[in-house]
Each structure stands twice: as C-alpha cells, then as structure tokens.
C-alpha cells in the first residue's frame, strides 16, 4: 500500500533529477532523450522537449504538489483509470498521469504513438526513488479492464470515446485553442510573450494562440517584428513545409495575406489556424469583443491579454489550471463512490 506522502516524494525526486540534468553543463541523459524523441516525432525538436522538461522540473516539487493536493481525497479503494493521451506536444498527457497516481488510483495508460517515449522515461525515473510506484501505472496497447476514463483527442474522436466509455465515469476532451486580445498598447516585452504563446511547440498545443483579436487600425508590423526571434522555426522541415504549402494555397485562392517568410497573418473569423498561420479579427469596441469571445467559449482553452492571462504564460498552466476547465483532481477524488462494474 502506497501513501500519498511516498508518492509525492517520488515525484519530488523526479523533479530534482530533471533540474540537475537540465542545469548541467552537458547532460548525456538530456541529449540522448531529446534526440530519440526527435527521431520518433519530427515536431519534438530538442528545444521544445527541453521546454516541456523544464516546465515539469518546476512543478514536481514537494511543496507545490502538497498545496495542490491539500483539499483532495486519496483513494482507499483504488480504481483503474484508463487514460488515452494526446501526443501533439511533448508530455502533454503527463498531468493526467500524475493526477491519477497522486489520487491513489492506478493509471492504465494508452500512449499516443507521437509521444511514446517521454512519459515512460519520467515514470521509470520516479520509480527508482519508490519502486512500488510501478504498481500505480500500466502501459498498454489496448485499453480494457477500467473503472473510469480520461480521454483526449479530436472533436471527431470524442463521439467514439463517449460511446466506448459510456458505462463508466469519464472526462472526454476534444479540440480547443488559445486566443489573444490586444488593445494596441502592448509593450515589446508583452508582444515577445505573445509570440511565445503562439510558437512554443510550433503552435501545436491547445493553449497556443491561433487567433488574434485586434482593435481597428492595429499595426500588424508590430507582430512581425516581435516574431523575428522565432526565425529558427523555419529550420524545421515540417514547419517550413507548412509555411510553403499554406502560402501557395492562399495565393491560389487569392486571399489577402501578410507574411514575413516566417508567419502568415490573415483576416479569418475561424479560431483555428494551421501551423505557421495566425488568424485575426477586428473588434470595434469592448461590447463587440465580449460577444465574439462568448460565442466561441466552448472552443477556447485560454485567453491571453490585459485582464486575462499574462502574455507569455499560455503554455505555462498551473497545476490546478485544468484542461477544458474540468477539475480532474476532483473527478478522481470522487471516484471511490462512483465506481461502476466493468
């Protein structure tokens, strides 16, 4: 029987390991892991994987984990929680794994083929500190024998998930994205932060900004200037191919588009934009802006801008900043009384 204190200690040790390796002048472990991740998935550039590792190194800390878990219950009758993880950015499903284990349940993990290396490696390292942690998770190819489920996928897959998991308590997540609200008075530092929100992980995360809401007569040259530090994105063939393809497509369709050999900016009411493209829409006043946001709330994961999340923090959620606004920890804490026969 594992206690929560022991589990927190194991993940705290993992955090220490990550901090030490990332701060080392040269880490063979980091170099080897990031190389293998990139070989498996061409979007997982070492720089992006290190960004994700750095994020978790900060939050896998005894005090932070303790504060987060303070008011939650630890299961005395563990459930088998099936987890279907996404693989769009490095370790995007690790929060679900961590929450499940620290709630006292067993994580039955179906990894994404796009991110099949990183999460198992972190769990293996944590298990060195607490060998019986290995009893708290299972890596599987086909999900079966579960008491509850948390599944993340596309809007199309959510219909299948809702059917497949209809007999158990569940959290089902589909596509969402991030938007930014600008008023024209942003500092250079804030616009640099906005570009981080747009282009960290190549913009593939549900918290990345794909849509800008701009005031009338906004000077888009400010966006282009702020994007310059991200010129390295074009060194990635996948990103470069996306840019070339969408630029050619827009030219063929005679769509008015602005570009700087790095990003394409187009007036488009859609929240979602493909890699290398930013959509924007103009608002005339605060009332019109609030209506635009309200109409799209179901598809928005986060909003950055003044009076919202700070620029540059879109991909830096806190432990209690839950995907889709659904409190995963509360869901898992209440499972003991909700378990259904399988």
Structural class: alpha/beta
Number of DSSP helical runs:
12
Query: What is the C-level CATH assignment of the largest domain?
Result: Alpha Beta
Distance between the termini: 23 Å
Q: In what range is the share of β-strand residues?
A: 15-25%
3D structure, described in words:
The chain has 342 residues and is of the alpha/beta class. The protein folds into two domains: 4-175, Aldehyde Dehydrogenase, Chain A, domain 1 (3-Layer(aba) Sandwich), CATH 3.40.605; 177-305, Aldehyde Dehydrogenase, Chain A, domain 2, CATH 3.40.309. Helices cover 40% and strands 16% of the residues. The chain has helices spanning 4-23, 28-40, 46-59, 62-69, 94-102, 118-129, 155-164, 188-199, 221-227, 237-252, 286-295, 328-333; strands at 80-84, 106-110, 137-139, 148-152, 170-173, 177-181, 209-215, 257-259, 264-267, 277-283, 300-305. The strands form two sheets. A six-stranded mixed sheet has the order 8-9-10-7-6-11, with helices on both faces. A five-stranded parallel sheet has the order 3-2-1-4-5, sandwiched between helices. Helix 1 crosses helix 3 (46-59), helix 2 packs across helix 3 and helix 8 (188-199) packs across helix 9. The longest helix is centred in the first third of the chain and has 20 residues, at 4-23. The chain starts with a helix and ends in a 9-residue tail after the last helix. The relative contact order is 0.14.
Q: What keyword list fits this structure?
A:
Aldehyde Dehydrogenase, Chain A, domain 1; 2 domains; single chain; Aldehyde Dehydrogenase, Chain A, domain 2; 16% strand; six-stranded mixed β-sheet; globular
């Amino acid at each position: 029987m594992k206690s929560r204190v022991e589990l927190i200690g194991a993940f705290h040790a993992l955090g220490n390991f990550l901090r030490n390796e990332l701060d080392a002048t040269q880490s063979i472990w980091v170099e080897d892991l990031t190389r293998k991740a990139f070989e498996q998935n061409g979007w997982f550039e070492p720089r992006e994987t290190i960004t994700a590792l750095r994020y978790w190194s900060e939050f896998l800390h005894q005090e932070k984990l303790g504060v987060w878990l303070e008011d939650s219950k630890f299961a005395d009758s563990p459930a088998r929680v099936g987890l279907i993880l996404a693989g769009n950015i490095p370790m995007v499903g690790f929060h679900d794994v961590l929450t499940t284990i620290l709630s006292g349940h067993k994580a039955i993990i179906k990894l994404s083929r796009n991110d099949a290396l990183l999460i198992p490696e972190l769990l293996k390292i944590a298990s060195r500190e607490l060998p019986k942690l290995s009893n708290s998770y299972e890596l599987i190819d086909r999900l079966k024998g579960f008491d509850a489920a948390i599944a993340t996928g596309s809007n199309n897959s959510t219909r299948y998930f809702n059917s497949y998991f209809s007999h158990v308590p569940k959290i089902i997540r589909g596509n969402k994205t991030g938007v930014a609200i600008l008023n024209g008075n942003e500092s250079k530092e804030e616009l640099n932060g906005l570009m981080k929100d747009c282009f960290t992980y190549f913009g593939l995360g549900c918290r990345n900004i794909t849509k800008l809401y701009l005031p009338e007569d906004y000077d888009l040259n400010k966006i282009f200037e702020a994007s310059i530090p991200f010129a390295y994105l074009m060194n990635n063939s996948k990103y470069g191919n996306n840019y070339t393809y969408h630029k050619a497509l827009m030219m063929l369709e005679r769509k008015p588009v602005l570009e700087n050999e790095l990003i394409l900016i187009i007036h488009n009411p859609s929240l979602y934009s493909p890699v290398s493209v930013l959509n924007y829409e103009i608002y005339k006043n605060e009332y019109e802006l609030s209506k635009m946001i309200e109409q799209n709330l179901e598809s928005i994961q986060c909003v950055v801008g003044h009076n919202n999340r700070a620029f540059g923090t879109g991909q830096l959620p806190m432990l209690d900043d839950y995907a889709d606004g659904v409190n995963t920890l509360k869901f898992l804490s209440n499972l003991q009384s909700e378990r259904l026969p399988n």
